[in-house]
Amino acid sequence: MDKAPVAGTWLGCDDAERTFDVFNPSTGERIATLPDMGRVEAARAIDSAYIAKKDWAKRTGKERAAILRKLHDLLVANADDLAVILTMEMGKPLAEARGEILYGASYVEWFGEEAKRAYGDLIPGHQRDKRIMVVKQPVGVVAAITPWNFPNAMLARKLSPALAAGCAMVAKPAAETPLSALALARLAERAGLPAGLFNIILTTDAIEVGHEFTSNDKVRKLTFTGSTNVGRTLMRQGADQIMKLGLELGGNAPFIVFDDADLDAAVDGAMVAKYRNNGQTCVCANRFYVQAGVYDAFAEKLAARVAQLKVGDGFDDAVDAGPLIDGKALAKVEAHISDAVSKGACVAVGGKADAKGGLFFQPTVLTDVTPDMLVAREETFGPVAPLFRFVTEEQVVDLANDTEFGLAAYFYSRDLSRAFRVGEALEYGMVGINTGQISTEVAPFGGIKQSGQGREGSRYGLDDYLEVKYLCLGLD
Ligand code: ADP
């Protein structure tokens, strides 16, 4: 697990001038030393992907699907071991890590099935002697850059539609969590994926490798999951060669509880939407808007549930929340809380670094939060639920939409007309109505505004890796 597939061979530390270490965020222990690659390896990987994709693209959907099916089955069969690797490098509780592996595998299964359905069109000709056909073809070599919060699923979600469509991939996982990506590549090889088709560049120099990805003209698409600022930079870099982009960027998800909501269901939804992955997902509820009539009751119920969450090492069975990923993440959570408290917010539960020390933080609920506080504008990316009070539906829709982000939104209401009205008025790519859990391989995941472009999952997700070509046939 200390080698990465580059251009058809596995490169280890002996093949590199420099190395870097990977640490367990729960214990601070070093768990791996890996080769630190750069532009040269990235370019070699792109060259080999460019060659490997020629044969791969010619295969039938069914042939590609057979390999993806094997990869899916291997992921499921090895879920326990993959979960251990994931918890070790990222810190999330083992059960959650296992859930992520199965979630990632579900995309591999879905896109394997969809590989057979990249249908085109036959359009009635515009002249008597013309026939018009539309076919869909793989975009070619895809570069992928993925974050640390879902080390398996964010990559599986990109790799599987790319392979299903007939593309090749060069991926750069986050340096904090590269081991899950290496395990995925090992299993892909075991599933029979041809050499050179899936490459992994391990690096601590993301900027350098990002430049190779966006300037190498053999790369036809860049798919990125991460922060809006880095997404913007990559979009600028890719502009020179009009690169096709898939961007899954930051969110600032509102979670709205109306007076007519089922409060217990709303609390259940909040626990999932906020505290899953310790608040470190781009679809995590970031701002809770609670209508005045149920504000106190909701705050009390939520705080009572949050107080029961157990923080600690992800390998401890009883643990609900692992550590934050690094010191910077912890400092941001602390800064958001102290800013809110200095402007009048109250801590209903949590509010401090956990007594365990290290990167552990207490799951927190803040009440009496107002729009002038940092938590209203910025993604906290940690276990903090700030509760804002609102009065009317119109007011809360305006507040919810008052952000440059547009990824996920959630609301709870038992009024059917309101469900449609608010669902349509929220400027977000995904809206959970009476649910805090929206991610699935069968639905299109993605954002609008500065949360990105493109969709992952569902039949729309395959289209992102296909080009539309029109053939006009003139008859004698
Ligand atoms: P996060 O806050 O999740 O770490 P980032 O956007 O910083 O979000 O990182 C997401 C991924 O983007 C990681 O793999 C990281 O190494 C990579 N990355 C960060 N900066 C750049 C850059 N300038 N060019 C290319 N990749 C980058």
TrEMBL record:
Belongs to the aldehyde dehydrogenase family. The active site is at E248. This is NAD-dependent succinate-semialdehyde dehydrogenase. Keywords: Oxidoreductase. Pfam families: Aldedh. InterPro entries: Ald_DH/histidinol_DH (IPR016161), Ald_DH_C (IPR016163), Ald_DH_CS_CYS (IPR016160), Ald_DH_CS_GLU (IPR029510), Ald_DH_N (IPR016162), Aldehyde_DH_dom (IPR015590), Aldehyde_DH_Superfamily (IPR050740), Succ_semiAld_DH (IPR010102). Residues 16-470 form the Aldehyde dehydrogenase domain. It comes from the Bacteria. The keyword Methyltransferase does not apply. The keyword Ribonucleoprotein does not apply.
